[in-house]
Design a protein that fits this description.
alpha/beta; ten-stranded mixed β-sheet; two-stranded antiparallel ribbon; 12 strands; globular; binds adenosine-5'-triphosphate; binds magnesium ion; IsoPropMal-DH-like_dom
Length: 349
């Protein structure tokens, strides 16, 4: 039985994670859950955001489902030393899991085009998966300094780093529309030239059935907004991916709709991209969609159950149209929306 470590976290975290688990219990009744306090909730209970017991639990898990962490600006957690704040727990969690690939589906759901900042004809059918390298590149290179005369950081990628992220992208594409766009700046950067060469090599030796093209990051920034339907899977390095995934995140038009997966060689980490929304915590109005869709990603990428993931995606699409939550202009609360999803799932057994 796959073991899922559940970290509800803070703010709306516990509410939206509870919804996701209700949904999982219908489509994958055999999963085992091990719940731990994490982030601010763990600080209040144990004095630290990510205890040794929780670290041990995630190392032995098949997947980790996370709600959200942190509090409002004026939260008492923000008066603690930096290494004892909720956010440092999240960094330590990602590190403990060694997640090197961040996956963010950018999808405009049918009937939800009006939420998108794009014109409806451009928004229709947008379904892109951004795969961002998460542990390398300019953010992490150990060679770095600042002095009176200059600041320095370096973008460096090693063979195995490009290989493993390319594999994630090609594999994901096989479960989608079989097309990968590798994004770089190979016209000016040697590191990009290398990236491109390695991605080509991985495709040729392991994924020759997947179509691959290469585009420059500046061009992709433009095309993601003017012609997003041209993309299936986008794979790119850390800095480019950081920027493109945030650009992409505004296309669906609501934070409450956006799930994410972070994958490494061990357990994957699944969480909504939004924060803990302290302004609406405890009111029962949070939209659980991003977390429920994160649970679907977990079924797809860590548990190898694409049919169960498809069932959730289909039920969410209908629930969004039939009984939308307040942030989407509807009136459903967290529980009512969840009940709609559960009802629709039961109809599609
Ligand atoms: P972070 O905590 O990552 O720094 P943030 O504080 O900028 O992010 P969020 O906590 O995500 O942002 O909240 C931003 C706004 O979006 C808030 O007004 C919040 O209520 C709203 N929001 C976020 N997630 C949801 C959700 N699932 N349902 C409804 N509203 C949400
Ligand atoms: Mg926040």
């Amino acid at each position: 039985m796959p073991k899922i470590v559940v970290l509800p976290g803070d703010g709306i975290g516990p509410e939206i994670v509870a919804s996701a688990i209700e949904v999982l219990k219908v489509v994958a009744p055999d999963l085992e859950y091990d719940e731990h306090k994490f982030g601010g909730a763990s600080i209040d209970a144990y004095g630290e955001p990510f205890t040794a017991a929780t670290q041990e639990a995630v190392k032995n898990a098949d997947a980790v489902l996370l709600g959200s962490i942190g509090g409002a600006q004026d939260s008492h957690w923000n008066t603690l030393p930096r290494h004892l704040r909720p956010e440092s727990g999240l960094l330590a969690l990602r590190k403990a899991l060694g997640v090197y690939a961040n996956l963010r589906p950018i999808k405009v759901y049918e009937g939800m085009e009006h939420l998108s900042p794009l014109k409806p004809e451009l928004a229709r059918g947008v379904d892109v998966l951004v795969v961002r390298e998460l542990l390398g590149g300019v953010y992490f290179d150990p060679e770095r300094w600042i002095n009176e005369m200059e600041g320095f950081n370096a973008m460096r990628y090693k063979k195995h780093e490009v290989e493993r992220i390319a594999r994630v992208a090609f594999k994901a594409a096989q479960g989608r529309r079989n097309k990968v766009t590798s994004v770089d700046k190979a016209n000016v950067l040697e590191v990009s030239e290398f990236w491109r060469r390695e991605v080509v090599r991985v495709r040729e030796s392991e994924y020759s059935d997947v179509a691959l093209n290469h585009e420059y990051v500046d061009s992709v920034a433009m095309l993601l907004v003017t012609n997003p339907s041209r993309y299936d899977v986008i794979v790119t390095e850390n800095l480019f991916g950081d920027i493109l995934s945030d650009l992409g995140a505004v296309l669906p038009g609501s934070l409450g709709l956006m799930p994410s997966a972070s994958l490494g060689d061990g357990a994957g980490l699944y969480e909504p991209i939004h924060g803990s929304a302290p302004d609406i915590a405890g009111q029962g109005i949070a939209n659980p969609t991003a977390t429920i869709l994160s649970a679907a990603l977990m079924l797809r990428y860590s548990l190898n159950r694409p049919e169960a993931a498809d069932r959730i995606d289909a039920a969410i699409l209908r629930a969004l149209n039939e009984n939308p939550t307040k942030d989407l202009g509807g009136s459903a609360g967290t529980q009512e929306f969840t009940q709609t999803v559960l009802q629709l799932l039961k109809e599609t057994v």
